[in-house]
Every structure is written in C-alpha cells, then in structure tokens.
Amino acid sequence: MDLNLLPEEEAYRQQVRAWLAHNLPKVMAERRAGKISGIEWSKKWQRMLYEAGYLALAWPKAYGGQELDPMRQFIVNDELARARAPGVIGAQAINLLGPTLLTFGTEEQKRRYLPPMLRAEEIWCQGYSEPGAGSDLASLRTRAELKGDHFVVNGQKVWTSRSRYADRMFALVRTDPAAPKHRGISYLLIDMKSPGITVRPLVQMTGDRGFSEVFFDNVRVPRENLVGELNDGWRVANDTLYNERNLGGAAEGNKQVFNRLLELARNMKRGGTALIKQPLFRQRLVDYQITVEAMRLHNLRLLTDTIHKRPRGVESLVNKLVGSELTYEMTKTALEMEGNYAPLLKGEERAPDRGYWPMNLMVGMGLMIGGGTSQIQKNIIAQRGLKMPKGPD
Q1: Distance between CA atoms of 174 and 184, rounded to whole angstroms?
Q2: Strand partners, 171
Q3: C-alpha distance across the termini of the chain, in Å
Q4: How buried is 30 (Cβ within 10 angstroms: 0-12 exposed, 13-18 middle, 19+ buried)?
Q5: Is 244 a catalytic residue?
Q6: Which pLDDT band, with edges at 50, 70 and 90, does 393 fall under?
C-alpha cells in the first residue's frame, strides 16, 4: 500500500496549511482579547472554516457540502490537528447528526437542517443518556406519545453537552413502551425553545458547566421531526453512534496531546537533564508515539473502507477505545514529569504548562466513559469483532 499522497492531494494539503498559517494566529489573538463571547467567537471560527470550504467536504452541494472525496476531509482534519486549531462549536451536529440525516432524513429535513448547522446558525445537542440509561442506552424511559400531528414528550436527559445554548436536540424517545426495549424507540429532532423544556447545568469537577440535565414536560414536537420510521429509532441511533466512533478525532486529538507532552519533556529538567533524555520518560514517549502512529494508520484503513463503501464493522470502535485510554495515560505521565507542582490549576502562578495537565486528566477520565465506556467497547469488540463468547453472568 502506498501511503503517500497524490500530487494533487499534497497540493491541497499545502493550501490548507497556508490558509491556517494566515488565519489562525489572527483568530487566536481575537480570542485572547476577549472582545466577543466565547460562543460567538466559536461560531465565527466555524463560519470561517465553512466559507473556506473546509467543513463537510464530502456532503452533497445541495446541503452545503462540496461533493469531494473523503480524502480531502482527512487532510483538513490532519492539518487542523497539526496547527492545534480549536474545534468547531457545531462538531456534534456535523459529525454525528449530519451523516445520519443524509442516510435516514427526508429531503425536507436535509434541506432544512444541514446548511444551518454548517454555518453555525443552529447549534445542536444530543439527547441520549438518561438517569439509569447510560451504557445500557436502550433502557431509556423518556416517553413520546403521538397525538395527531405532534408527539408529546415527557422525561429527562442527562450529561447533555452544549444544551445550555443549543437551539435544537436530536433525541431518542420511547414511543412504544410495550415493545422490547430495543424496539419501540424513535429518533426525534426537538426545538430547544419549545415550551416545557427546562435545562439545569451540571457543575463538573473541572468547574465547567458543559453538561446539563434537560427535563421535558408535555413538550410538543411536530411529527415531521421524526427521523426514519416510527419505533425504528434504535437503527437510526446506531448510525449516529457509528459516526461518533468513526470520526478519526481520537487520533487527531491524541496527536495534539502527544506533541504537547513532547514539548513538556523537552522543557522540563530533572538533575539538570531534560526529561526527554532520561530513559524512563524517553521509553514512554516512544511507546506513545508508536500508538499515535498506529491510530493514524488505522484511520487510513477506515478511510479506505469509506472510499470503497465497505460495510461498517467494529473497527471504528478501536480508535475510540485506544484514544481515550491513551489520553489518560499520557496525561498521567505529564503530571509525573511536572512533579510537586503538577496539581496546580490554570491561574496559579507556579502552575507548570499553565495548568493544562491536571485539567486534561479530569477531562480524560470522562472520555473513557462518554460515548460508551471502555468496558462496553471491549465487550463489543470481543463479541462482535472477534466472535468471542459472552462470559458468565
């Protein structure tokens, strides 16, 4: 297999790199200046990427895409990671909901919802997890009762990212409580400004309020907001979950974390010697670099499957599993490098690396839970991918 880019692909890479080199410093300076709110700044950055042609490149032009091959998007994602560019505020919609609508949405739904999500005109949140229905998502109890041309939704979602400022939610609801739990579920698009919705932010151990509880009290949702068939939402949801685990974002994100760890190892000294030259840390860095490179190559394998339209398997779960655990391990090594001052957070005068690593440790612990715990991922890979038998109950 030739892993080198074609000449036209390399030229495209250089174009993306040049655009980022010209625009990213100005954008980051504006962010540091704090003249606009963080949310408005994030929307502006997403619009810049969209107008430059670097979002949803493979989508049809009718819905805001460019109908380019998936390799172009892979190149863009790789360059964004290389430049340590901030993510986009609408990533959850673009990467998860967008492909699902392209597969299951009606023509009206695609034209109505896809272009605004690319332009950051509408921000989406994901309504999956509930109290008692996290890893066992099919146990969800939020009820949607069809009454004429509307569903009436009652229930609760939890750990809902971006729900404090989201305009819309894509949610799983139970529409047939008498059916087996994997059936009788439907996939709805819900306007977050609808009467009867209450959002209560949850304070994380990082001090952030990125997640919320969302309560539904007789919330009316038009029937045309149903994605796919009634009571067939589990099949639609699995498509969204596949998109979540097949982003390649784990490999790109881990590359950024590794590069920062490498920089830390060059700058931190112990006994007058940079840590990068000390055998214990040097060996760990080599192991991490090998894993990051293996994830990159695995991404290329997934990209090849996408290009050739091969059936989806459990391969996409590997990067999610390896990536989340690798982030946690690299962060623990960074804190070990920083020594006694490692626990100091951002804003503390003596905090090494501006307090990045203790915060990343707390975030990293969540990454091994969100989107399916590591234990669940291992079970799925073992049973569905390796055809291993289930263990005793």
Answers
A1: 6
A2: 127, 188
A3: 44
A4: middle
A5: yes
A6: low
Structure tokens at 50: 């969209």
Residue 376 pLDDT class (50, 70, 90 cuts): confident
d(Cα 96, Cα 76) in Å, to the nearest integer? Answer: 18
Which residue in the block uniquely carries the two structure tokens 């692909």?
A: 9
Distance from C-alpha of 257 to C-alpha of 84, rounded to nearest angstrom: 10
Q: Assign residue 17 the CATH number of its domain.
A: 1.10.540.10
CATH code for the domain of 183: 2.40.110.10
Asked if residue 136 and residue 72 are part of one domain, the reply reads no
Give the C-alpha distances (Å, rounded to integers) separating 194 from 81, 181, 205, 283: 37, 27, 30, 55
- Interaxial angle between packed helices 7-33 and 70-82, expressed in degrees from 0 to 180 and rounded to the nearest 10: 40
Q: Using H for helix, E for strand and C for coil, what is the string for 270-297? A: ECCEEHHHCHHHHHHHHHHHHHHHHHHH
Write out the residue range of the structural domain in which residue 55 sits.
Answer: 7-89
Contact between residue 286 and residue 239 where contact means Cβ atoms under 8 Å apart: no
User: What is the predicted pLDDT for the residue at 76?
Assistant: 93
Q: Count how many domains the chain has.
A: 3
Which of 79, 122, 130, 244 does the annotation list as catalytic?
Answer: 244
